[in-house]
What we know:
The protein has helices spanning 2-5, 7-32, 37-43, 51-66, 70-79, 88-100, 120-132, 137-155, 165-182, 188-213, 228-237, 242-255, 345-353, 364-367; strands spanning 285-286, 288-291, 294-301, 315-318, 334-337, 357-359, 373-377, 382-387. By secondary structure, the protein is α/β, with parallel strands linked by helices.
Amino acid sequence: LTALRGVLPAAGKFAPRMAAGLAGQRLLRKLAGPENSERLNDLERGLVGNVVTEMNLTIGDLADELRKSEALLAQVSDQGLEAAKGTEFLTAWQDFLAKYGARGLSEIDARRPRWREDPASLLQMVIGMTAHDKAGEHRRHYNELTRKSDIAAVEVSKHLKGWARGLKRPIVKRLIKVARNLGALREHHKFLMIQVLAEVKTVLVDIGQSLAAKGVLDRPEDIWFLTIPEIKAALGAGTPMQEAITARRAEFAINAKRTPPRVVTSEGEIPRPNLSVEGAPEGALIGSPVSAGIYEGTARVVKDPATETLIPGEILVAPFTDPGWTPLFVNASALVTEVGGLMTHGSVVAREYGIPAVVGVPEATRRIKTGDRLRVNGEAGYVEIIKGVAS
């Protein structure tokens, strides 16, 4: 309850600043003009204070701590965290979970385990980073992005064109300051929401256990198939709910196998537009360009980040991404997703990491195979399969 009461005051402090940062970035692109496009790309990368970037850097630090001892790495890989008792790695691990343990895969779904509840996927990512990355590489990459951002902050106002450049220069300098200082807040609202959701989950789990003990539910986890009004009614009347839950479980299992449409109108129609990009090669997969750059490399199709890792230089191809996926971005050189837009999580992180990205590519994880040679055009918004793995 205390956590919930603190949500609105906290959101009220940073939400207007976050909006100002995003507005500053958009206005800056209009005023600075196309001649500053590359500099603005650099400006938006390596921002200081982004909570997801800080989380990923800390995960990289965990990998560096684990790789200090080959014996410990082998033991943790084989036996899990039990093998790390009494080590500096376990201390760093516990500090990480104290700050970020409310996060996890598909974290917007309250029933999914948080990292502090089931850290297996996180540990797999950390171990994977020790196999494919060099010590400190994540920090060096971030520092290089920050260095380029610092340079761009100085250079943009020097390269304005047009008769009004003298008038625009002070406004551009102000927008640069706003965009850099406040743009990093764009991930804070989600971070706050997930922390609150973790508190709510704790309460619901306790209620589920109580209702199962009273015979209202067969299992505590059945509570995820009840609405809030039904939970309140069950707490009061104690009426068994298992018949409705069994039916909902069966319906859920059926729906889980379906592929949802990208858009459904209010009339129930499902539009199927023919996507195209002028100049795209024949057969290219079309999507939305959300992070500039062109990269050619090997595809790695990942549907479960808990069990797969990337080798540096590979292209991450995924159905979607959320903060639970972003440790994979450390090794990714480009991103392709089936779902997403300009301001969705993967797009924002791709821009901040400086990797080309195309999102909203229909059936990308089915049409692209691991091992395919791809060219990702994050400027025009298409993906070429240069050579299929079976070719």
